[in-house]
Amino acid sequence: MNTELLGVIATYLLTLVIAIPLGRYLAKVFAGEKVWTDFLKPLEAGIFKLSGINTKEEMNWKQAMKALLTINLVWLIYGFFVLIYQDKLPLNPDGNPGMSPDLSFNTIISFVVNCNLQHYSGESGVTYLTQHFVLMFLQFVSTATGIAASVIFFKAFRDRTTERLGNFWEFFVKSITRLLLPLSLLVGLILAFNGTPTSYEGKDQYISVQGDTVNVSRGPAAGFIAIKHLGTNGGGWFGANSTHPLENPNYLTGVVELVSQCIIPFALVITFGYFIRRRKLSWMIFGVMTIGMLLLLIPMLQSELGGNPALAKMGISQQTGAMEGKEVRFGPAISAYWSTMTTIISTGSVNNMHDSTMPMSGTWQLLGMMINSFFGGCGVGLLNYFVYLIIAVFISGLMVGRTPEFLGHKVEAREVKIAALIALLSPFLILAGTAVASYVFTTHGEAAWAVQPKSWLNNPGFHGFSEMLYEITSSNANNGSGFEGLADNNVFWNVSTGIVLMFGRFLPIIGPIAIAGLLGAKKYIPESAGTLKTDTLTFSLMTLAVIIVLNALSYFPALTLGPLAEYFTMLK
Amino acid sequence: MKTSSNKIFDPALVQTALKESFIKLDPRTMIKNPVMFTVEIGTLVMAYVTVYSVTHTGQGSALYNFFIFFILLLTVLFGNFAEAIAEARGKAQADSLRKTREETPAKVVGSDGTIIIRSSSLLKKGDVFLCETGDTIPADGEIISGIATIDESAITGESAPVIRESGGDKSSVTGGTKVLSDQIRVQVNTEPGESFLDKMIALVEGASRQKTPNEIALTILLASFTLVFIIVCITLKPFADYANTPITIAAMISLFVCLIPTTIGGLLSAIGIAGMDRALRANVITKSGKAVETAGDIDVLLLDKTGTITIGNRKATSFYPAAGITSAAFIQACVMSSLADETPEGKSILELAALQEHKIMAVPEGAVFIKFTAETRASGLDTPEGGRIRKGAFDSIRNMVLQAGNPFPADTAEQVKMISSNGGTPLVVSVNEKAMGVIELQDIIKPGISERFERLRKMGVKTVMVTGDNPLTAKFIAEKAGVDDFIAEAKPEDKMNYIKEEQALGKLVAMMGDGTNDAPALAQADVGVAMNSGTQAAKEAGNMVDLDNDPTKLIEIVEIGKQLLITRGTLTTFSIANDVAKYFAIVPALFIASIPALEKLNIMGLHSPESAIMSAVIFNAIIIPILIPLALKGVEYKPIGASALLRRNLLIYGAGGIIAPFVGIKLIDLIVGLFV
């Protein structure tokens, strides 16, 4: 078999080998069972004491959500102002300017919501201080927020009937001390030894063979890049993200970055099963997610390895596949794998330019983000999946002639209402956002804005439409990757995506946790022969069908006018 | 029911339903069904577009617009028709029951005892009327004095007469039934128009019909699907503008109507009504649609032993003479003791004796029949010759024998134990205070009952037998009949406690009862079925009344409830699955003019954009009437386990739902393509 494909398979297997034990370990950590990292307990106790947190105080779902929202608001306000005034603060050796309010608004939301949609460029838009104490800080805490939220969610199903879902702060702190910090340290070291800079000095210079003076940005990047992937954040230290030779120097670092962005989302699915003592259920969910991943990955590999049909028509041989926008040190296979993982897992880091991938690959990337629940972001992917699961439970419950129930709790009108609203939210944000952008572009192209709408798009036609659709979809999915080719640092895009980001983050966390909280508080019904089991192959296929059908129905027309139209026109 | 038609489309009913379909176009009625309401709005918009396109260009020809308008109107009407026909059928069923009680003269007993003849429709709650042999009972009520045999065949279809008497648990009479012998005084216990049947008719007719919890949840889900498609269709306008593709209003509305779940939306209320109607066809009056739905969820079923699991009474199965007594002599004593015994047990002893070729003689002249009393717990016969033949419970006969100074035979005592442990009832027979032997009485388990319990077990329903028997007997019968659990030596409060315990575990419990004693338990149970012959209190407490007084009816009710949910679930799946094909019909049609490359998406090879859109809309409309029979009859329930059932229904209604419209739309397009 082709070495490039072997690289993909090996990377995936390596992810599994790390993620499965990690999942088990996390279940123990959050259940308070004995683990080898317990030596960190005194540190955590110190943090709790300092912050006046009593971890014995268990919260119900509303209290947990209140805690989550409050702390996120604090970070939002803090970061917003620091980014605006970064030019006046220390650790700015390159003398970069402060952010405009709209860019700061977009940037801070984007980092608080674990998205990292970057409308600035790392080299010139931020300082070492903001990179570290705003952005990297948020990469840690936004990930921990997601993980803590998912543990609150798990708690609802651990006991038969309960309203007490644990202490949000405890889960939050433990996510950092027991998981994110140690792993980041390790990954950061690997990157540093492979050439990623870790210096506080400003730009370096060298004189090229041609005799030009070249300025090379650097900075303490290795740690940042570690948590960028581990926490499915995706925001690069440098503007070019992981295509940049200093951010992702070689194939090995590529593999390390790929593995690190996948392990926590993979592991949390396993954690769910161990934590609620229903391992089979979590393997079934894992299976559905894997099949979903393959359904996107395989055609993407095919279209990237197959090369560009337009070039093929000109009689040009493309033995290496479609290479436009790709790094030669990676090649199309691992790039297609990266594109799949980064879109389904909501990381949004890139090792190749999605704007240059084949039109059909664009369809798969978009779908990965629209679905946003094949593994998904740290903690939140499972919550997104849960919304589809509830809809599947409801419909299949009816189909077997029983009031639907999940893990012994009846799913009734209230839960269905919340699930339906959350399922509705993504199509609403994505389609309405893209519609507004299209409208402004078509009818107000000449508007007297700093960047005129008519000059937003690098590519007219279907591809231009895909660029706008991609930007909004990426924001809603809290993904953060860009189709680029879109002039996005202006008031319209900064504000519109900022709003989409916020709704796309918090409602899909609150909704599923509310459902879980409501279900958990309901009377537990023991299983009988008439109960529909949710850990079976049949039910898993039902969930997969619900995910595919709902997304296909919501986005088919939009995808038709974007990548599909581009693809079919290209074939002609 | 003999009187009602089982045909789905009875011409008379269709006529009523057709008329109703138009009346239901009233937006105030339509808004209760959000899915179909949006279709109605779409129809109105198309009416406007049709008129507009007569004088203007740009929105397609007036004829084409009119056609789309017409099909949309049909879609709404079909949905209304489904509901109307379900209502009409339910109403016809109820009417046929009500007819039995129309305008009968009632002999009302005045406060001074005089009798006035008054029409039954004028009877008020509290009135007392007299019924004698040959009279038709004018109204529902409770017997306050007397006993009578009554022909209830008009209601139950069962020809054997039943006995109803005051004071007991069988004191209720139903209007329309006929007194065959004796006379009774009956007190009317409902106001005119408020009987259970009247309430049921109101439910079916929709005036007081409330949505059930599952129906509400499903409506929410369907409404949210509708909202998604509103978003999809509205945003398509700016998308198309960007791509320089004008989309006509007709195309946009067609796409919208095809995408929203009109199939299930149109059939949803019909399914609910049909559920109640099916219950009524099983001769069960339900007080709410919710009760039928809950029945499908039942986890535990409480059944009385007598009459449900066993054939009413015990029967003699063997004679065991004591040592030293010949079989013939013992049987002779048994026959003598039972000659004047009118109880079913007594009769069964004579039957058994006859089977063993013992000649039954007439009651000897001058013999005195000794009645069973709670004190002696024995009955028998004193012959004119002075012989004292007694038959009774082991304890009482043994006491009598021992008191007379006679020994009680050890082998008989042994036999008594054996019989008890086998679930039988021993009856010891003595002649002149000398024990002769023991008769074994056994409960006869109804044929086929254990298969029914097996079916219930597969549905996940636990069956519990309630009996007054001692635990040993109860256990034996429970095992033999195949029930999962039993309550022995049950007192009324035991039932209540059992129900509460199960409910505390989160289970839903159903029970059937008839007596006033049962009323609290009936009220406590999630599904309480009162027998029509039961007391008024029992009937008030339960949420269903069984006109047949058939205790096994609960099993049918559970299945009806499951069918109701399954029909909703499968048709929802079918409806959503249909959208895939509709997309492939309409989306290429929308854009093909300006993006010819999208012809590749026209995988069905439809004739033209117009014919594609028309075919999709036509398919969307006609699928509703095609599915009406299924909605009314209900999707069959098979107790094959939840996962297997899901697999089966997903295959039929999910996969089938994806394939069917591809075929259907293509076929319609072949025809439409000839004209467009």
Automatic annotation (TrEMBL), chain A:
State a single Pfam family of this protein: KdpA
Q: Does the keyword NAD apply?
A: no
Alphabetical GO CC annotations of the entry are:
plasma membrane
Its main localization is: membrane
**Residues passing through the membrane, by range:** 6-27, 67-85, 133-154, 175-193, 258-276, 283-301, 374-398, 418-441, 491-519, 539-558
InterPro entries from the entry? KdpA (IPR004623)
Membrane topology value: Multi-pass membrane protein
Subcellular location(s) per record: Cell membrane
Q: Which domain of life is it from?
A: Bacteria
Q: Which family does it belong to?
A: Belongs to the KdpA family.
Biological role stated in the UniProt entry: Part of the high-affinity ATP-driven potassium transport (or Kdp) system, which catalyzes the hydrolysis of ATP coupled with the electrogenic transport of potassium into the cytoplasm. This subunit binds the extracellular potassium ions and delivers the ions to the membrane domain of KdpB through an intramembrane tunnel.
Its assembly, as annotated, is: The system is composed of three essential subunits: KdpA, KdpB and KdpC.
* Protein name listed in UniProt: Potassium-transporting ATPase potassium-binding subunit
Organism (species) = Pedobacter antarcticus 4BY
Automatic annotation (TrEMBL), chain B:
PROSITE patterns in UniProt: ATPASE_E1_E2, COF_2
Which residues are recorded as binding Mg(2+)? Answer: 514, 518
| Enzyme active site | 304
UniProt key word Ion transport: yes
Q: Which protein are we looking at?
A: Potassium-transporting ATPase ATP-binding subunit
Q: Which reaction does it catalyse?
A: K(+)(out) + ATP + H2O = K(+)(in) + ADP + phosphate + H(+)
| P-type ATPase A domain: residues covered | 103-205
Q: How does it assemble?
A: The system is composed of three essential subunits: KdpA, KdpB and KdpC.
Compartment(s) of residence: Cell membrane; Membrane
Q: Name one Pfam family in it.
A: Hydrolase
Say which species the protein is native to.
Pedobacter antarcticus 4BY
Q: Which family does it belong to?
A: Belongs to the cation transport ATPase (P-type) (TC 3.A.3) family. Type IA subfamily.
The molecular function GO annotations come to:
ATP binding; ATP hydrolysis activity; magnesium ion binding; P-type potassium transmembrane transporter activity
- List the PANTHER family hit by this protein, alphabetically: POTASSIUM-TRANSPORTING ATPASE ATP-BINDING SUBUNIT
